[in-house]
Amino acid sequence: LGYRTIAIQADPEDWFNRKQAYDMLGFDKATWLFGQPGIERAARGRWPSDKAVVRRIIEESQQARPFFIFAFPSGLHSPYNRGSYRHSDLEVLDPPRGDAADEVKEYINEQRVSDQAIGILIEHFRHQPEPTIIAVFGDHVPPLSDGALSSFFSNLSGMSNAEQDWRVHRVPLLVWANFDLPREKVE
Questions:
Q1: Which is nearest to 95 in space by CA: 144, 147, 167, 43?
Q2: Reported pTM
Q3: CA-based angle 118:122:124, to the nearest 5?
Q4: Exposure string (b/e) for 89-109, b if CB count within 10 Å is 16 or more?
Q5: Are 4 and 66 in contact (CB under 8 A)?
Q6: Higher pLDDT, 145 or 112
Q7: What are the φ and ψ backbone dihedral angles of 32, each rounded to 5 degrees?
Q8: What are 11-67's pLDDT values in tens digits?
Q9: DSSP 8-class letter at 41
């Protein structure tokens, strides 16, 4: 098809055999941000920041065209008990009890940071002349503690098993384009 294909990964190269998987999937290039010196780290310190991932996406997009980039940030991954957002202005409206409240606060604040990085990405491509589609998806329910997820699971009670399975195992998807697309809402 003529596309240059790039995988950008925030996790270490050896996790889940991704290097071999990317090779087998036929990516032209795989970039591993985790071990790169000087890479901006997320507020919780371990992973490359979502903004660092976005900067790399933008950098790679300025090379040969057309391109397909699969990027896997790790900013939203656990653990959520570091207290990095203890003094943040973003609060949980109906927090769970005890340590779970701090855990949820850290998660929603990291979600905000991730959303801001996605905003930078969209704003960049909004002004590009080439038609561009960005798809953002989640891969699982966040690995929060039982206490932090208690209200989520209590809201499932009374639903059919099929509805419960759908809510627990669905993959949220956001699709954005810098050109008009037909609009659909899938429930």
A1: 147
A2: 0.85
A3: 120
A4: eeebeeebeeebbbbbbbbbb
A5: yes
A6: 112
A7: -110, 110
A8: 888 888 888 888 899 999 999 999 888 899 888 777 899 999 999 999 999 987 899
A9: B
Residues 67, 4 contacting (CB under 8 angstroms): yes
Greatest pairwise CA separation for the chain in angstroms? 54
Contact 113, 50 (CB under 8 A): yes
Question: Residue 172 has what pLDDT?
Answer: 83
Query: Which residues contact residue 137 at a Cβ distance below 8 angstroms, ignoring those fewer than 6 apart?
Result: 171, 172, 173, 174
Do residues 43 and 83 make contact, with C-beta atoms less than 8 angstroms apart? Answer: no
3-class SS of residue 6? strand
78 with 11: CB under 8 angstroms?
no
The whole-angstrom separation of Cα 176 and Cα 125 is 10
Dump pLDDT digits (tens) for 6-21. 999 988 888 888 888 8
**Element (H or E) spanning 67, and its range?**
strand 67-72
Return phi, psi of residue 50, to 5°: -65, -35
Residue 187 confidence (pLDDT) = 67
> Looking at this protein, which amino acid is placed at residue 124?
H
* Angle ∠(117,59,57) on CA atoms, nearest 5: 45
